[in-house]
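BUG: 3D viewer hangs when loading the predicted structure for this chain

Environment: internal workstation, default settings.
Expected: structure renders.
Actual: progress bar stalls at 90%.

Input used:
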Amino acid sequence: MPFSISKDTVSNQTTHVATAPASQRPDPVETKLEQEQGRPRLSSRDVVHAYVALTKPRIIELLLVTTLPVMFLASHGVPKLGLVIATMVGGLFAAASANVFNCVIDVDIDQKMRRTRRRPLPRHQVPRRSALIYGIILEIIATIILGFGANWLSAGLALIANLFYVFVYSMLLKRRTWQNTIWGGIAGCFPPLIG
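Structure tokens produced before the viewer hung:
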């Protein structure tokens, strides 16, 4: 038969793997963990894409669109360019942080819904702990940019919005009541307020 393998061939291959130097042998613990967790090996580009996807860029875009026009109203004309950049970039990081926290909290239900099951955490592209640290770092950056680039009131408002979105909307209301979107919308009012 063309596809038959002799016992000698199999035993030779097994002996070759067993006697190979330790640096060339596959790590059985690592291999087992990867198989159990279902984590695919990702390229650097895939990892970057996964971390960006955690921030939900399309939602951030909607929030920033409501921030900029209000800055023109508040300044009764054209606001200073540096102030606009600091507010928009700080707002971007603050919204990104809130969205990452939301992904971490909702990973279990995201696995069940067709719309969300392709997100990075349900697909095990990013470890949950790493995503949590990522969200914290994004919020720290947002606070620094808004505090020094705009003012500390806007930094405080962004932090309050993030805390409200995470603790009130995502953790308290989302799984308990249909009114979650009504009360959760309060967090969406903060970007114009910051502007």
